[in-house]
Each structure stands twice: as structure tokens, then as C-alpha cells.
């Protein structure tokens, strides 16, 4: 199996809900569910890998408070080299709604301090050679984002394929954010986007056509994946053929981190040298289980987990 790593945002999620309609200002309501858990795109991906028994590395940072210690404990030895910055740990409060969607309130916290120096503190290029590094949460880690080109040089210089999932920009998909994302994608080996992101970045309504347009601006041999929620996922690989995987019908309980769980299972299969169709099926199956179980369960990778 090829080595795997994730680089990006790890923070604390406090999940409360469900609630509807939105309460009026100055009132108090009670909800049926609360959960304090590891969050952030990198954190969600790493938790899924951990639950699936997949070996990986994770480059992140934490704040210098009790929540920072708690996040370290969740990843044991893998977090031993994470830098602790002189800020409070980023906290997201997620309010869930009866349809499985959610609203987040997030503090700035430690994430803006995450830097390329922090990445190099944790990751060693030799151990990751020939593998995949997932870069996520770019718009929440502006210090690292300014050095993305240097990070791309570092990964590619060591034979590491770079995978990108930027997540949603706090100020939305402005033209500036679209432009910088397209520039990043021009140097990435794989893009893991949701349907809205892919169509917004290209201005093309059909996800398959949007994926082709994005692929045309990426290096030879790249892969574009578009996650379509209950519609499953599609992908276009180096051969230019469209591949798809349908999602099973499930009762949605909690969609938080669904795309990140998909990323984890997809990349685990990709690192096992599975065909693109198998990778999509793996991502859809594991993510579907995650969003339909409480407490969250990931199950296992599909039975085609052995390398071909």
C-alpha cells in the first residue's frame, strides 16, 4: 500500500441539535443530542483512516490550551510533533437540523498560525515517497496557503502526489477564491470537490462537464472527483473516461464531515492501487455509513481492499 498523509485543519467540533426553526434572539431551547469530537477536514479524514485501520501521517497544529491537549490525545503518537501555538484552539459549534444539514459557528483560534514550517516539522519526505498527501482546509490556514507553491515543490520533488480539497471559503466562492483555487489545481495530481464547488469553479452546470473542464487545467495523469451527495460520486481519470458510483439509500443522521470521510476511503483504495471505480465505491460506501449512524460508525473498506 502506498503511504498516505493529510495536511490541514484539525479543530474541536461541538455538535448540538437537531433544531428547527431557528430560535429567536434572547430565547433558550433544549436539544436531544450533543457531542464533543475532533473536527476539521484533516481531523475528520484522519479519524476515518484511524477507524478503518489505515496507516497514515497527519500534519496539523493546535492551540496552547486544554482543547489542544485533547486533540493531541485523540491521535496519540501521530500528534507528537504537532506545534502548539500561543492561541486558543479553534472551536466550531455545529447546530444540526432535522434534514441532516447543519450550521457552523467557528472561532479563528489556532488555524491561521499553521505554516509550512509546521508541516516540515511533522512530515518526512522519504517516508511518503510514492504516496499521496491530501491538502485540505486551505482557506482556513492562510499562512500555509501563501506557501502552497513551495509545498507543491516539496511534495513533487519527493515523488509524493498532491491531492486537494480546499473546503468552503469563509467569504464564499468569490472570483478571487476561484482563481487561486484553479491555480492550485494546475499543480495538483487529484482534486476532491463537491458538486457546488466544481460547478462554481467552472461556471458549468453539469458536474461531468465541470470535471472535464477542471481536468483540462491540471497536470497529465491527474484525477478529478466530484462528490454529489445522495447522487453518489463521479470521476474522470487519466484515460478521460467518466466513472461513477451510486449512493445507497440511507436515513441521514449527521452529514458533518461526510466529504472528508469519502476522501479517506477513496484515497485508501487509491493507495491500494485499486481501479478508479473501486475507489469511488469505497468512498461512497464508507461515507454513507458514517452519515447514517449515531454514534458514528465507519464500517470497513469494501472486500476489494487488497491491491491488484
Shape label: globular
The count of strands amounts to 14
At the fourth level of CATH, the homologous superfamily is Ribokinase
In the CATH hierarchy, the architecture is: 3-Layer(aba) Sandwich
Largest sheet: 8 strands, mixed
Overall mean confidence score, pLDDT? 95
**Which H/E pattern describes the elements?**
EEEHEEHEEEHHEHHEHEHHEEEHH
Cα-atom radius of gyration:
18 Å
Give the number of helices.
Answer: 11
Would you tell me which CATH topology applies? UDP-N-acetylmuramoyl-L-alanine:D-glutamate ligase
Please, could you describe this protein's structure?
- By secondary structure, the chain is of the alpha/beta class.
- It has one domain (4-10, 41-87, 111-291): Ribokinase (UDP-N-acetylmuramoyl-L-alanine:D-glutamate ligase, 3-Layer(aba) Sandwich), CATH 3.40.1190.
- Helix content is 34%, strand content 21%.
- The protein has 11 helices and 14 strands.
- It has an 8-stranded mixed β-sheet with strand order 4-1-9-10-11-12-13-14, sandwiched between helices. A 4-stranded mixed β-sheet has the order 3-2-7-8. Strands 5-6 form a two-stranded parallel ribbon.
- Helix 10 (258-271) runs antiparallel to helix 11 (276-291).
- The longest helix is centred in the last third of the chain and has 16 residues, at 276-291.
Amino acid at each position: 500500500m502506498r503511504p498516505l498523509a493529510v495536511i490541514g485543519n484539525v479543530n474541536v467540533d461541538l455538535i448540538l441539535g437537531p433544531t428547527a426553526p431557528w430560535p429567536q434572539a434572547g430565547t433558550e431551547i433544549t436539544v436531544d443530542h450533543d457531542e464533543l469530537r475532533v473536527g476539521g477536514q484533516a481531523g475528520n479524514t484522519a479519524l476515518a483512516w484511524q477507524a478503518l485501520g489505515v496507516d497514515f501521517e497527519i500534519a496539523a497544529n493546535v492551540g496552547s490550551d486544554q482543547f489542544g491537549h485533547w486533540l493531541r490525545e485523540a491521535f496519540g503518537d501521530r500528534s507528537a510533533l504537532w506545534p502548539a501555538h500561543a492561541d486558543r484552539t479553534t472551536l466550531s459549534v455545529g447546530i444540526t437540523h432535522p434534514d441532516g444539514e447543519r450550521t457552523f459557528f467557528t472561532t479563528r483560534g489556532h488555524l491561521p498560525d499553521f505554516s509550512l514550517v509546521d508541516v516540515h516539522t511533522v512530515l518526512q519526505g522519504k517516508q511518503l515517497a510514492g504516496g499521496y498527501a491530501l491538502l485540505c482546509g486551505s482557506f482556513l490556514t492562510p499562512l500555509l496557503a501563501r506557501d502552497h507553491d513551495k509545498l507543491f515543490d516539496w511534495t513533487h520533488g519527493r515523488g509524493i502526489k498532491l491531492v486537494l480539497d480546499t473546503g468552503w471559503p469563509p467569504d464564499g466562492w468569490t472570483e478571487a477564491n476561484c482563481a487561486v483555487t484553479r491555480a492550485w489545481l494546475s499543480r495538483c495530481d487529484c482534486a476532491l470537490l463537491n458538486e457546488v464547488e466544481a460547478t462554481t469553479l467552472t461556471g458549468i452546470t453539469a458536474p461531468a462537464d465541470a470535471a472535464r473542464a477542471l481536468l483540462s487545467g491540471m497536470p497529465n495523469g491527474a484525477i478529478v472527483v466530484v462528490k454529489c451527495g445522495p447522487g453518489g460520486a463521479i470521476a474522470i481519470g487519466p484515460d478521460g473516461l467518466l466513472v461513477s458510483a451510486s449512493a445507497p439509500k440511507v436515513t441521514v443522521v449527521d452529514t458533518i464531515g461526510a466529504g472528508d470521510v469519502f476522501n479517506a476511503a477513496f484515497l485508501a483504495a487509491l493507495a491500494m492501487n485499486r481501479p478508479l471505480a473501486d475507489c469511488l465505491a469505497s468512498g461512497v460506501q464508507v461515507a454513507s455509513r458514517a452519515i447514517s449512524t449515531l454514534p458514528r460508525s465507519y464500517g470497513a473498506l469494501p472486500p476489494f481492499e487488497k491491491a491488484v
